[in-house]
Design a protein that fits this description.
alpha/beta; Rossmann fold; N-(1-d-carboxylethyl)-l-norvaline Dehydrogenase, domain 2; 2 domains; eight-stranded mixed sheet; 12 helices; globular
Amino acid sequence: MGHIGSRHSGATPTILVQGIGAMGGVAAARLLLAGLNPTLVAGSQKNAEALNARGVTLISGDETTRVPARAFARVQDIPPAERFDIVLLFTKAGVVEGAATETLPRLHVDSVVLGMQNGVIEPTIARIVGEDRVVASICNWAATMREMGVYEHTVQTLTVLGEFSGQITPRLHALEAVISHIAPVQLSPNILGAQWSKLAMNCTVTSLGAVAGSPLSDILTTHEGRAVFLAVYLEVLKVAQAAGIRIEKLVLEPFVPVEGSPEEIEAWLDEALVVYGKSKPSILQDLERGRRTEIDFIVGHVVRTADEVNIEAPLCAAITRMIHECERGERSWCLGNIAELAAIVRENQSLV
């Protein structure tokens, strides 16, 4: 876990950004504006040609900036001799295995790969490129793609980076210097706990919003919806605790609400409503577009972990099943699904 690209000590690291959607587009734009000249993989010849012809445009607040870019449709189209010190995978979690496989021949022995998706995808990447090459990350910032090549940085908050060893290594500091051009960086000695903190919010905000077909404001304004949100959140915390994971604070303070007063619990739910109430969940957007969702890397990861530690996670299992049924066209995403989850809560009183 030494310096990144240590054979080129003092040189600017070579960077590959794979996946130029909203988040990848903003990352590419900010790295280009910083003079780091990343190579971009756009996923199709049409997209690559658009980026090469028009460059990348970044909208941030009232400022709009355009910068030239170098893009390819696929990793295989990049000149064969080129290798990369840092690879940022902004592809959807469901295709990250293929993305990592394509990238593997372009790595040095001391290259580093970051998965910049929702959910826990590092084990998948590590199986392909090797654990020593993987650093974990959490993107707490947000972006919108207006059209191919035009990106808006909508929420400018932290990126969290960490080694699974818990050490703050030289390569983490080297990555911090690069990633801080995209968003402020926090180095974490407990990246797994930070990931599960975000996972808990993804399992509630993103996943419940998807099965309901509604923003969180339509869920947390009902007694039934608040009970389901709380029960799902508690279920994720229970699984983390059983797996020996210590949850870290991110946006909302993770705690076991049953240890608080009813007033504290209601205030915590109200805070979730304020922070996330108007956001349209990314999983819902995928369902509406007929795309495969990232549910197996979010709620599905909780279910797999629960199986590994021999405990039950009935709500997370139900949400995972519901989303897959929605993907197959066997279920509608609607508020009636929240009622179905509420019935599971009532059947399992230990969940609340």
